[in-house]
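Can't paste images in this forum, so I'm doing it all in text. The chain is below; anyone willing to post the predicted structure tokens underneath?
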Amino acid sequence: MFKAILLEEIQGSVTAAIRELDEKDLPEGDVTVSVEYSSLNYKDGMIINGLGNLVRNYPHVPGIDMVGTVCESQHANFRIGDQVLLTGFRFGEIRWGGFAQKARVNGDWLLPLPTGLDAKRAMGIGTAGLTAMLALMSLEEHGLRPDKGKVLITGAAGGVGSVAIALLKALGYTVTASTGRVETHPYLESLGAAAILERRILAEPSKRPLESATWAACIDSVGGSTLARVLAQMAYGGCVAAVGVAAGPKLETSVLPFLLRGVNLLGIDSVMCPMPRRQLAWQRLAKELPRSKLDSITGVVTLNNLVEYARDILGGGVRGRIVVDVNG
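Text version of the structure:
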């Protein structure tokens, strides 16, 4: 028997509670993992609160990340005792996820725990940190270097934003953080933000298709009118890595930033990202993300108070990264 957060749908309403499950309840897979930690992401908040139609079948165990130790394996690449992590591949969405003490998965989705990371820090990174690194890699492939100019991070106090600021600062970039939470300004400055821009300024729809060329690059977690405004402010040849839709998926903009300034809008997907690129991103995170900064952005909760935090993350009430100790 093991504990898990179990979601059930009753008359169209999704409820979440801690349940005792049997290993025979686990889905099919060739590797069974004793889970040590998971993490709370914005998508987890949506799933636990029954939003977005992300879950197809109930009952369901959520949690899009996990790290743990292999306890059973029929997969050629993994043996009992191996430490592994999993993010993406619809884990926690259409497949049972990591908010549980046990998980059974397809071994092809697993990565060995990267050298230099322990289990807790790996989940301090999680999907959010992986997304931040994938965004940086894409920006670099389109020519971004520290001497190119200022990099804007929207939704800066969230998980992706927090990791992105710490990572970019460590690599020598000049970062501007955009947030609507005044109380997070000292936190963002401690991570390496050189300047802070109020969210409302970017959230107001632009009155012109092109504004003053300000940013060499941007990692955008917000979408909507914020993304449209940022595109109008990009410098010549600048790139925006779009990673989230906190303000909604609709984008009303002009083609002029693309045609007159050669701006690039780059889509970042961490769910089905090919394994070689995923491995490279994790290797870089293990090497380049400062441990002290990662620890400073990470809080820990247990299954007992996870549902409360899953509500808070949707309303912008969670700062940085939340690790879930499934055995706590």
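The longest helix spans residues 119-141. The chain has a mean pLDDT of 96.
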